[in-house]
Design brief:
The protein has helices at 31-41, 61-76, 88-96, 109-119, and strands at 6-14, 17-26, 48-59, 80-84, 104-106. The chain is of the alpha/beta class and 120 residues long. Helix 1 (31-41) links the parallel strand 2 (17-26) and strand 3 (48-59). The radius of gyration is 13 Å and the shape is globular. It comes from Dictyobacter formicarum.
C-alpha cells in the first residue's frame, strides 16, 4: 500500500461555507484522506467548499482526477467549489485542464470567502 503524504483539515467559516486545508501531496494514495475531508466538510447546510492549497507540496494527474471526482460529488450536492493558494505552476495546470473553468481560483482565503458570500 502506498504511503499517504497528505493531511486534510476541515474548518467551518459559516454553516454554509467549509474550508478543506490541504497539506502535502495529492495523488492516488491520498484518495481516502481527501474523500474523508470532503465528507466532513459537506454538512446538510454546506453550499460552498473552499480548497486551501497553500501547503500543497505536489499534485500529479491522479490528484487532478481526485479533484474532478470531488467536484462531481459537490455538484451532486448542489455545492459550489472554490480554491485558493495555488502556486503559479498549479494555476497553469488548472487552466490547461480547464478545471479553473469550474473551480474558481483565488489568491487568498479572504478573496475566496468574499466570492463565497456572494453565492449565498
Amino acid at each position: 500500500m502506498p504511503q499517504v503524504n497528505a493531511v486534510m483539515g476541515v474548518r467551518y467559516s459559516s454553516p454554509e461555507v467549509s474550508i478543506i486545508d490541504i497539506e502535502g501531496d495529492i495523488s492516488a494514495s491520498s484518495n481516502q484522506v481527501l474523500t474523508d475531508a470532503y465528507a466532513k466538510a459537506s454538512t446538510s447546510t454546506t453550499r460552498v467548499i473552499i480548497l486551501n492549497f497553500l501547503e500543497l507540496a505536489y499534485m500529479n494527474s491522479s490528484g487532478i482526477g481526485l479533484l474532478v471526482t470531488l467536484l462531481i460529488k459537490a455538484n451532486r450536492q448542489k455545492q459550489q467549489m472554490l480554491a485558493y493558494g495555488l502556486s503559479a505552476h498549479y494555476r497553469h495546470i488548472f487552466q490547461l485542464t480547464r478545471i479553473s473553468d469550474v473551480i474558481k481560483v483565488y489568491t487568498t482565503e479572504s478573496e475566496a470567502l468574499a466570492f463565497a458570500s456572494k453565492l449565498l
